[in-house]
Amino acid sequence: MPGFVIKDLPAKLHRKLKQRAARHHRSMTKEVLALLDRVLSEEDRPNEIPPPFKGRFALTDEFIEQARREGRE
């Protein structure tokens, strides 16, 4: 299996990775592999459209025009 070496890892990043690995009960190597797998898998998926906003009122043209008249943008 191919290997990978990270040189000059900043101390802050090392500490965060170590804490994250401990939270997930993994070694740091396994945590890095899980993170890489997740990020690279997300790249393979097409951009998903978020669900429509379900607010308290509809943004109609009339509402937008009134807001502009009132100086809101």
Flag low-confidence runs. none
Following the backbone from N to C, one meets helices and strands in this order, namely HHH
Overall outline = elongated
Question: What would you call the structural class?
Answer: mainly alpha
DSSP strand count: 0
In angstroms, what is the radius of gyration? 23 Å
Average pLDDT metric = 87
Share in β-strands: under 5%
Helical residue percent band? 40-55%
Count up the helices. Answer: 3
Give the terminus-to-terminus CA distance.
Answer: 56 Å
The biggest sheet, with number of strands, parallel, antiparallel or mixed sense and barrel status, is:
none
Describe this structure in words.
It is a single chain. By secondary structure, this protein is mainly α. Helices cover 53% and strands 0% of the residues. It has three helices and no strands. Helix 1 (11-23) packs across helix 2. The N and C termini lie far apart (56 Å).
Task: Give the helix/strand layout.
Blueprint: H1 11-23, H2 28-44, H3 61-69
Structural features:
73 residues, mainly alpha, 53% helix
In short:
By secondary structure, this protein is mainly α. Helix content is about 55%, strand content about 0%. It has helices spanning about 10-25, 30-45, 60-70.
